[in-house]
UniProtKB/TrEMBL annotation:
Transmembrane segments: 50-68, 80-100, 106-123, 135-156
Source species, domain of life: Bacteria
Organism, scientific name: Synoicihabitans lomoniglobus
Predominant location: membrane
Lipid bilayer topology: Multi-pass membrane protein
Signal peptide residues on this chain, from the entry's feature table: none
Family as reported in the entry's similarity comment: Belongs to the TspO/BZRP family.
Keywords of this entry: Membrane, Transmembrane, Transmembrane helix
GO-annotated cellular components: membrane
InterPro entries documented for this protein: TspO/MBR-related_sf (IPR038330), TspO_MBR (IPR004307)
Protein known as: Tryptophan-rich sensory protein
Compartmental location: Membrane
Annotated Gene3D superfamilies: TspO/MBR protein
GO biological process: tetrapyrrole metabolic process
Amino acid sequence: MSRWLALFLFLLAAFAVAGIGGVATASSVREWYPSLAKPPWNPPSWVFGPAWTLLYTLMSIAAWRVWLRREEFGSLANQLLGLHGVQLVLNALWSILFFGLRRPDLALVDIVILLTLLVVMQCRLARLDKPAARLWVPYVAWVAFALSLNLAIWWLN
């Protein structure tokens, strides 16, 4: 497979997750979410779209870098790529739980698992591919921030 086709497929997978999140979020973000008590550090709504677009792009490039070096990394590359798929599922599931089902409690469990997985992946990436690890940092930071928001919203409501 061409390296550019592979990058396209990583981006496609990430933005498919974004699409799932968008569908799960659509009605709740207009009707339910505005009615919730939120912490003072809750960002304005317009921040989320650009932030996630950047994050999905960076995570795709990081995974692609691992894919490009999969022969060099061996089974660890396959493990990382598998974990990448799992984290995409957890990412989509969070939107479904929080916005789709309006269950911040279940979403909190999901995001704790997601952040734990992302930190494990960050540690492995740091040993294998420093540029990929640097690309992964904003995603880990954003999910940690999102966890604090999720926790606060659950607590306040």
